[in-house]
Write a structure and sequence with these properties.
elongated, single chain, YopX-like_C, SH3 type barrels, YopX_protein, YopX protein domain-containing protein, about 140 residues, 2 domains, mainly beta, about 50% strand, six-stranded antiparallel sheet, 13 strands
Length: about 140
Amino acid sequence: MRMREYKFAGKSVESGLWVYGRVFKINETGDHFITPFDSKIFEGTINYEYYFQLKCIKVIPESVGQYTGLKDINGTKIYEGDIVIAKSKGSDTAHTIVVSWIETEACYNISPGYQMCVIKYEVIGNKCDNPELLEVE
């Protein structure tokens, strides 16, 4: 059985840089944070009790997306919210798509909305940094 990689991306509120790791949300405030996988900054025992402290980076909630488990033709990991160009087998037609989660089908939408055998994806941006890529001419 293949283990899924639970990894998230989000854009830092403070620096504007993308961070990757585990995500959590504070329900009372709606704030979202990502804890990078290598973020343990303290670990030890105090009075025989185990403690650890993690680095948490506040991120823009709308920027948070989960890793799909897929990579594009360049080896770039594809996250929810990424904008990809999808090309189908036997066709020169390319479709620009925002990767999104479909709750009712428990899968990621990474096709143009109809039956299509997509064989090539290329990440060209994301909905947070590159909304202009989604504008229809």
